[in-house]
Amino acid sequence: MSLGESDSPTLADVEAVVRENVSGHVDGDRHEQGKQQLLAAIRHRRPGVARAARRVLLGAAVLGALAGGGAYVWKQHNSVRLTYDVAGGLLSDSGYVRGSGPSGARLSFSDGSRVDLQDGARARIAAVDAHGARLAIENGHASLNVAHLPRAAWYVDAGPFVIQVTGTQFEVDWSNYDDTLSVDLHEGTLLVSGPPAPTGVLLRAGQRLTAHEGRLSIEALEQAVQVLDAPATLPALEPLPDLEPALGAPAPAEPAADDANAARAPRPEAATAPQRKSSR
Amino acid sequence: MVSSPQQSRARLVALPSPTLAQADDATLARAASSGDPRATSVLWDRFSPLVRRMLRRTLGPTAEVEALLQEVFLRALRQLGSLPDSAQLKPFVVAVTVRVLSGELKRNRVRRLLRLGKQWHPGDFGHGDAATRTALSSLYRILDSLDADARLAFTLRHFEGLQITELASAMDASLASAKRRLARANARVQAAVSRDAAFSAYTTAAASLGDGP
Fold first, then answer.
1. pLDDT score of B15 more than 60
2. DSSP string spanning A188-232?
3. Residue B158 and residue B190: Cα distance in Å, rounded?
4. Is B75 part of the contact surface with chain A (CB cutoff 8 Å)?
5. B-contacting residues of A 113-142, CB under 8 Å?
6. What is the predicted ipTM?
């Protein structure tokens, strides 16, 4: 190679090292292989069509990207968790709520749902997602008005009981002193599960459910209708999808394998099938 | 003499010479643009070593060289139809190669900004002794620091020996722009190789061996 006059590298050194060591030569096989590759590419490409196809593909890619972006924005919009605020009560960082005055506390959610905790009632917001929340009543009386929205999914835990809600008005009273649950349903339907009814009991508007000491009764709000002594084989609760783990709240009862179909589609008549009428 | 599809027969029989390998540029260009595979074959034989060398010397020995070589020929064949009869093929092929190189260098610069660029190692330069390979890896690291235009100006001038007018033409730039780019590149590369220990060691060792390794 040719070098500059001093030991310091020059551009001539740079030229030389590349020119002497980097060539365009390849062996005959590789040369022929490249030629055949080119000829094959020309054979399989119709001039003009390839360019048009590229434009179409580019257009499709742009449309796809726009559609994907729209879907992402839509999903983001729909996956925004509900927000809520508390009036007349105290809310701790862990989601614990209790009234701070005689009028109790009101929880107002961004989907329009409301929960009124009576004076002395305590509850915990165990989880919130885009379609509902999980509320654990620790003690006392709560009135709930859940907005009837598509895919609404609300759960209320009261001691060992779980109430599955899909747009309705009801009142829950849970006493952790004597483990008594009372649910008054004014509108819609509810599915209540607990030790006396592991797979759930369907409650209709105008009914009251009471559970105490292993007995579960359903009666009209003014008049007793049914009493349930034994565990019922009723529609199972559906798991609440996408909710964060409940903070100390009991999980809904897992449906038994035999009840898998029932779990998908609660059957109103199932609530009465295993039950025994009471004259009470 | 012609066994190609009927569609191209009329054009092929109009060729003045049955031996395309000896055909002049205009004849070869016409035949290649008409889709004659023999002309494509001759073009490949005639220009692929030049194009491959330009790609290798400008980009370094990367895996993309063979794919870019195909890209150069596909582009050239597509544009041959619009080539004036008086035009020479070699400057045309060089200009197409420069355009492909320019695009690739710009993409490489973005890759480097995203830290996805190639890291040069002496092992990438398969031929020569260890000192030469180390010097080459240092040099291509230095070239990677140049912008696409400056790098192209430098490699075309110093590695391919293009005159400044040819350089300007190939880069589709004015003479003044070509000179500016080259001057900028020369200054950067000169300063960098002077500071580079591996390159300095290589030149010192080569000088002590007389005419180099």
1. no
2. SEEEEEETTEEEEEEEETTEEEEEETTEEEEEESSSEEEEE-S--
3. 12
4. no
5. none
6. 0.79
**How distant, in Å, are the alpha carbons of A49, A144, A246, B56, B60 from that of B213?**
52, 89, 74, 22, 21
Q: Does pLDDT of B6 surpass 60?
A: no
Residues in A touching B54 (Cβ below 8 Å) = 24
Q: Does A3 touch chain B (CB under 8 A)?
A: yes
Is the CB of residue A123 less than 8 Å from the CB of residue A142? yes
User: Helices B130-144 & B197-208, crossing angle to 10 degrees?
Assistant: 140
The residue whose two tokens read 């960098």 is: B192
Q: Over the stretch A176-206, which tens digit does the pLDDT of each residue have?
A: 888 899 999 998 888 888 888 888 888 888 8
**Contact between A219 and A225 (Cβ < 8 Å):** yes
B39 inside 8 A of chain A by CB: no
Measure the CA angle with vertex A140, ends A138 and A143; round to 5°: 105
Given B35, B45, B57, which is nearest A18 (Cβ)?
Answer: B57
What is the C-alpha separation between A137 and A97, in angstroms, rounded?
A: 10
A85: number of Cβ within 10 Å: 10
Cβ separation A47–B189 shorter than 8 A: no
Chain A residue closest to B196 (CA)? Answer: A9
Provide the number of CB pairs (under 8 Å) joining chain A to chain B: 112
Structure tokens at A27: 């062996």
pTM of the predicted protein model: 0.49
Closest CA to B85 of B15, B17, B14, B26: B26
B40-85 pLDDT per residue, tens: 999 999 999 999 999 999 999 887 899 999 999 999 998 887 777 6
Question: B37, A13: Cβ pair inside 8 Å?
Answer: no
Residues paired with residue A169 on neighbouring β-strands, in sequence order: A145, A187
Domains in chain A (CATH in brackets) are 11-78 (no CATH), 84-229 (2.60.120.1440)
pLDDT higher than 70, residue A33: yes
Residue with tokens 């049914």: A226
